[in-house]
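CATEGORY: protein folding

GOAL: derive structure tokens
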Amino acid sequence: MGWVLMSERDLNRVEVLSQVDDGRLTVDDGAAMLAMSRRQIFRLLKRFRSDGVASIRHKTRGRRPNNRISDVRRALALSLIRESYADYGPTLAAEMLEDRVKVLSQVTHGEMTVVSLAHVLGLSRSQVHRLLHAFRKDGAPGIRHKARGRPSNNAIDPAVREYAVTLVQDHYGDFGPTLAAEMLAKHHGLKVSRETLRKWMMADGLWLSRRQRRSFQQPRLRRDCYGELIQIDGSEHHWFEE
């Protein structure tokens, strides 16, 4: 009989299922201990009784994950790092690999194929051809996202921001962002998230961040002479002999 490698969670499941199977625990108690539903407990019990302890292990353990990066893409990335970024650290090398302008230039100059570029960028051939068309037509600016630099579609109107800040100044100046947001929604019908209101209040000086509100104790100044100490006695009694 071979060894069965199990995690601590699996061992805990085996212990609880054994107690449920022996009648020492009810199904409801076992479900509460394992944070599962009754249906999941019955399913595990069925597998445990038919196939034993090994059936508790997850079925995908030891298998390759579905979203695993292909070996071709891994080999291509490592070859590019050896050839061009051998003296780079992992962070900078990853940034350079993601630099679409550079790799698109290699494709236009015939230094890389479209298939290789698709593996590097994690895109399909049609997406790569679309990027190449924009790159050849408009150059590097064509690679930028079209929505970059434009105001967001769900941006709050500046008039709403000004109205909310004015209400906070007039009625809730000593309130924090969370309570102020609740008061705006309750009494004025203005629904603004507390984080948005926090940013507005901080920008207008109505609220200080946690770091800005930190107070530091003034350190005690050094004495003129070594060993010098001030003795203060606030008691009315004579503690020392006269």
